[in-house]
Fold this sequence. Notes:
The chain contains nine helices and no strands. By secondary structure, it is mostly helical. Helix 1 crosses helix 2 (23-48), helix 2 (23-48) runs antiparallel to helix 7 and helix 5 (97-110) packs across helix 7. The longest helix has 30 residues, at 174-203. The N and C termini lie far apart (43 Å).
Amino acid sequence: MVGTIAPAGRRARRERDWLAVNPSIVFALSAAVTAGIVGFLLGSLGSGLGLTINRWTLALVALVALAAAFVESREVRPRLSLFRAQVPPTWATYLGTRRAAVAYGSVLGVGFATRIPHSSIYVVALSALFIGRFGAFFVWSLYGVGRAIPVVTATYSKQELEPDLWNQKTSALTSQVRKACSLMLASTAVMLTAVLVGELLSSGSADPSGL
């Protein structure tokens, strides 16, 4: 997507057409809105099943976060059955730049419909089941924005890099990003565990019925 949307965004910047929205911004908005819808649906599913935040769910999310942190620390790319490994670049040809930006952003926002770069998505998806519709909408919207940041950065960067060179530059940071992601996931697991232990100590009971 960096090699397709970002060059179009840079061309739009050079043309200085202030009346037209930059394709990269369209892409990011599409990713955020679609991700929000996915989050809302996950939150609705959780609410429909009666899932709430309690001791069991805190322990489950902490465990999954810890497992995801281990995966990231080992630099093993998570794999699931995906609809498509990558979106086809031909969309930009027969859909036009801005409609293709909407399509690319929508696929990215779904989260599981394209390549999954980090295992943190599983923690976010699991958490969305327990935090309600609007909480999940907000969290997943942020996820969509996060996934779109590389394209927006490539569009507005002062460095005039070709798409292949920009991809190489991004790939060079992969190890550091994985380490940061692993640290954040481990910190999340520790924080949730601390909350759980604190609740158990304060209640003085092993009753797992909820907070």
